[in-house]
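> example.struct
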């Protein structure tokens, strides 16, 4: 009974801090409700301070809570990059969300457990991997200079490996990987030369975008995932387009079977 009371109190606090209302009962499992700018997290998971291949950027803060599939995908992506490139430094992960979602003092989003900030992989002038430099802006030419005059370079290979791993992870559906136009151009240029998977090349220009009415994100990636099918049924809201590769079966079956009945089509449309 105490756990149930705590869950309702926590969710209510999240709703109040979000400045919005949710209709219907709250789920008793991990779930994202509302939108990324006006939502909450139910039974969210906490990102650890340290994983096999990542580190928390702000280990002393509570802004570490998100839906489990997002945190698991980050852990998997960081481990994958290290597996492909031995000697890779730990991926540094910034803000996820508050304990129950809702208002976040540093962000207009990050309120429903589906957003996370990820710092870039960096290297020195000789191509050797370096520990994360923190939130330092990189130019379109791929370098950054800190206030102390230290020079860092954007690691095209490792950052592309991170992006492609997230794009191909079947456990999540990535809506956006926000970054500056200069960073996007570097990644796409690298991918055109090195990426063998045509599907990944097709997806990347949709997902890699500089956000509108916000900072250019030249110092980190901002990753956002779509609501799951179950979450959408409970009140999770995706704002923006849904990418064409997420429902290819609708177009395929509709084209191959002109007599497709309404019940079958409705079942297809409800698929995640």
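> example.seq
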């Amino acid at each position: 009974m105490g756990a149930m009371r705590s869950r309702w109190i926590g969710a209510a606090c999240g709703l109040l801090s979000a400045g919005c209302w949710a209709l219907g009962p709250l789920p008793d499992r991990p779930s994202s409700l509302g939108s990324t700018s006006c939502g909450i997290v139910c039974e969210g998971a906490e990102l650890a301070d340290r994983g096999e291949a990542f580190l928390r950027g702000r280990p002393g803060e509570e802004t570490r809570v998100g839906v489990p599939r997002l945190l698991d995908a980050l852990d998997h992506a960081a481990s994958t990059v290290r597996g492909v490139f031995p000697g890779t430094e730990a991926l540094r992960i910034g803000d996820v969300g508050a304990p129950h979602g809702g208002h976040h003092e540093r962000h207009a989003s990050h309120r429903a457990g589906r957003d996370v900030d990820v710092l870039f992989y960096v290297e020195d002038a000789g191509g050797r991997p370096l520990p994360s430099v923190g939130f330092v802006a990189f130019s379109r030419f791929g370098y950054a200079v800190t206030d102390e005059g230290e020079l860092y370079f954007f690691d095209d290979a490792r950052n592309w490996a991170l992006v492609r791993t997230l794009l191909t992870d079947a456990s999540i559906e990535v809506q956006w990987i926000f970054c500056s136009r200069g960073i996007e151009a570097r990644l796409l240029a690298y991918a055109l030369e090195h990426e063998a998977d045509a599907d990944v090349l097709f997806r990347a220009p949709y997902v890699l975008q500089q956000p509108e009415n916000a900072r250019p994100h030249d110092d980190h990636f901002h990753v956002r995932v779509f609501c799951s099918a179950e979450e959408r049924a409970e009140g999770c809201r995706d704002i923006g387009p849904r990418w064409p590769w997420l429902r290819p079966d609708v177009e395929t079956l509709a084209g191959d079977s002109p007599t497709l009945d309404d019940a079958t089509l409705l079942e297809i449309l409800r698929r995640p």
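> remarks
The longest helix spans residues 2-18.
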